[in-house]
């Protein structure tokens, strides 16, 4: 037996059991049972109940969310309606608040016989300028409604005691919208300075002390609550009770409480007629400045003080005072000289009333 035959015999002997087993299986056709795959058990009853509860809660949340959205939308609509109603109410209130002022302006214009030629309105001040003509003289009326304590102030010429400048110069220097000459003055021939006459106040303080009334002089100014105050004062405490914020001095008092006051004889005749500047107040505390034209200070042109008393009463003025007049009369509006100064030019003055937007 050669080696190859020996190897073949050995392989046959090694494979014989395996081949025999395969032949046996093929011939016997024995059934083969495969293991079944395990399927998940159906959920327990408790778990099913929890699942159903969760689904129900989810549905309820969807319903609640829809209701919430509807409610929010309704509230938004109501808010929008309320805002519109509130805005309408504010507009109605503002319109209603303006009606008395508009009615007052209309009545004043009717009494004066003319409408305003110019006007400036701001939160600080409402200014209306009128031009009117009377038998024997022509004039200008500046009606002032103050909205705040920033609407009007008095200033010294060049901002110093003894200084002087024209009302136009003061208006431009301060950036005011209008200006009117204020109190009288006294000149110092040695220094050439021009000093405010008698009691003068700025910022609630006396410029150089209180001086009791003499020669029919009267203090004319505004109180801290923006009301026209004035008159003759022999004691400082009497003036202090009125809480003056600013003011100057001149002569005479024209009206008090809607009643004419006696005019000193000198002021009835010297001069009889002249350019004039005066200030008055209505019952509603609005102010009225009147400036009249005149050719000179010789007494032949311009207005008399009794004529102006009658004019003021006809316009509804309650209290009124004469300010410095003649060549001192100055009315500036919107950067322009409104009156015709009798000197042919504006006079440098010690005090000025200015108005601000």
Characterization of this structure:
- The protein has 357 residues and is α+β, with helices and mostly antiparallel strands.
- It has a domain at 117-355.
- The chain is built from 6 helices and 20 strands.
- It has an 8-stranded antiparallel beta sheet, covered by helices on one side. Strands 4-20-5-18-19 form a 5-stranded antiparallel beta sheet, covered by helices on one side.
- The protein is elongated and about 165 Å long.
- It holds the Pfam family NAGPA.
- This is Exopolysaccharide biosynthesis protein.
- It comes from Paenibacillus mucilaginosus 3016.
- Residues 174-356 form the Phosphodiester glycosidase domain.
What average pLDDT do the residues reach?
87
Helices and strands, in N-to-C order? HHEEEEHEEEEEEEHEEEHEEHEEEE
Q: Radius of gyration over alpha carbons?
A: 50 Å
User: What share of residues are in beta strands?
Assistant: 25-35%
List keywords for this structure.
20 strands; alpha+beta; NAGPA; five-stranded antiparallel beta sheet; 357 residues; 34% helix; Exopolysaccharide biosynthesis protein; eight-stranded antiparallel beta sheet
Summarize the topology.
Blueprint: H1 3-28, H2 45-112, E1 118-121, E2 125-134, E3 137-146, E4 152-156, H3 167-174, E5 178-181, E6 185-187, E7 194-196, E8 201-202, E9 205-206, E10 218-223, E11 228-231, H4 236-240, E12 244-250, E13 253-256, E14 259-260, H5 265-269, E15 276-281, E16 287-292, H6 305-314, E17 319-323, E18 331-333, E19 336-337, E20 351-355
Give a concise summary.
This protein has helices spanning 3-28, 45-112, 167-174, 236-240, 265-269, 305-314, and strands at 118-121, 125-134, 137-146, 152-156, 178-181, 185-187, 194-196, 201-202, 205-206, 218-223, 228-231, 244-250, 253-256, 259-260, 276-281, 287-292, 319-323, 331-333, 336-337, 351-355.
């Amino acid at each position: 037996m050669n080696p190859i035959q020996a190897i073949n015999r050995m392989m046959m002997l090694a494979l014989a059991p395996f081949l025999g087993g395969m032949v046996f299986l093929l011939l016997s056709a024995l059934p083969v049972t495969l293991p079944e795959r395990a399927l998940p058990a159906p959920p327990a009853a408790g778990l099913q109940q929890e699942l159903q509860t969760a689904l129900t809660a989810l549905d309820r949340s969807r319903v609640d969310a829809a209701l919430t959205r509807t409610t929010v939308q309704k509230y938004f609509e109501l808010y929008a309606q309320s805002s519109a109603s509130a805005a309408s109410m504010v507009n109605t209130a503002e319109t209603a608040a303006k009606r008395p002022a508009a009615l007052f302006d209309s009545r004043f214009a009717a009494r004066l016989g003319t409408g305003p030629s110019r006007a400036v309105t701001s939160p600080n001040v409402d200014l209306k300028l009128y031009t009117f003509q009377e038998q024997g003289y022509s004039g200008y009326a500046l009606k002032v409604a103050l909205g705040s304590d920033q609407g009007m102030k008095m200033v010294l010429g060049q901002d110093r005691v003894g200084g002087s400048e024209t009302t136009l110069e003061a208006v431009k220097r301060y950036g005011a919208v209008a200006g009117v000459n204020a109190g009288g003055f006294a000149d110092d021939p040695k220094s050439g300075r021009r000093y405010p006459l008698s009691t003068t106040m700025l910022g609630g303080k006396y410029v150089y002390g209180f001086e009791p009334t003499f020669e029919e002089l009267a203090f004319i100014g505004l109180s801290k609550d923006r009301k026209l105050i004035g008159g003759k004062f022999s004691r400082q405490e009497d003036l202090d009770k009125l809480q003056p914020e600013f003011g100057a001095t001149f002569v005479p008092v024209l009206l008090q409480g809607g009643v004419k006051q006696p005019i000193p004889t000198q002021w009835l005749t010297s001069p009889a007629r002249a350019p004039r500047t005066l200030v008055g107040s209505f019952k509603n505390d609005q102010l009225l400045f009147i400036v009249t034209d005149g050719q000179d200070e010789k007494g032949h042109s311009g207005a008399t003080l009794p004529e102006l008393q009658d004019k003021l009463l006809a316009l509804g003025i309650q209290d009124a005072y004469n300010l410095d007049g003649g060549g001192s009369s100055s009315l500036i509006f919107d950067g322009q000289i409104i009156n015709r100064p009798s000197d042919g030019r504006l006079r440098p003055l010690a005090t000025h009333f200015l108005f601000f937007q």
